[in-house]
Amino acid sequence: MNRTQRLLKTFSELVAIDSPSFGERGVADYIRDKLQKLGISYIEDNAGAKIGGNCGNLFARVPGDSQKAPLLFCTHMDTVEPSKGKQAVVHPDGTVTSAGDTVLGADDFAGVAAILETLERLKEDRAPHPPIELLFTVAEEPYCTGVRYFDFTQCASKTGFVLDLTGPVGTAAIAAPTILSFSLTVEGRAAHAGFAPEAGVNAVEIAAKCLAQLPQGRLNSGTTLNFGVISGGKAANIVPERCVVTGEIRSAQHERALAVFDTVCAVFARESKSCGAQFTSTQDIPLRAYRAAEDGDAVRRFRRACGKLSLPVRLIETFGGSDNAALQAHGIDGIVAANAMFNCHAVDEYTTAAELEKAATLVYHLIVDEMKEGGKQIENSTRLPEN
């Protein structure tokens, strides 16, 4: 079995493990077994208990040259639905898909497999390398829930790479938005809809008036607003006394996201008051906007490693979320690297053996190629908005 075959085997084994968000125990045990066989120490935190899951985040350290700065690599262990019973189907041309009734799970098992294969190759090659830190997170798909409970004081790294981006290997996201999720509640007054409708205060009607006044969708090139779920009322013959609207705001500018939320709340508060209803709101900001420096260590290392593989470098701005927001918030210069996953979050998700190999080899070179000031750089990389 050559290295690419071993990589594909690892990937297929990971795919075969059920790992929904909050249920990553099987994958965590698989990774722990691999780390133990390689003689790598690890810890599992108590994030699972805090979020109602069956597993915590895994954090491992691989000793290296203490004279070199450590590097952090991060992937997540959960997959989106439908995922139960998924299997990797390897086609003659090297394409890998699911059977068609589940996602494949290349998001993010392609990243996990790339890291595990790289560890094997480093040991086999006895390659000198800096200290390496590995973070395998839980419940990433639901707004990066698991990583929020990881203690980043354990990390010595100031440079990091999150393997969790769709597209050809050689692509990396250097910027991502603030994501603000919210819940808006209008409390009116119930009444019999047939005998005394005028005695009621219709919370659903008030919410509808508010939504009619607010723009939705893409507000500008860097901000979106979505009202995703509306619920209210108890029965057809009762004036609904309560209506709850939930949604999210995404913006490349953090302050812009806050301003949009303030506007939404102002409209709901005004209409509720005018109709004799009460209004309350809650918000959560799981991810805050960031932009990695293009002359920072993460981007420079990425360019150098891609150069070793003759890969075109493509730096993009994503409008999705990832664990990299947590790295950035804790002072780690991180970027999100494409790791051989395509059509993510759909049953036609796929990867290829060739792209998996590129991803693993890229991780290897990110680790072993020492960045030196004045070293050869790739000058003609492009920076494009994400498709």
Automatic annotation (TrEMBL):
The keyword Transmembrane does not apply. Its cofactor is Zn(2+). Transmembrane segments: none annotated. InterPro entries: Bact_exopeptidase_dim_dom, Peptidase_M20, Peptidase_M20_dimer. Pfam families: M20_dimer, Peptidase_M20. Residues 178-270 form the Peptidase M20 dimerisation domain. Keywords: Zinc. This is M20/M25/M40 family metallo-hydrolase.
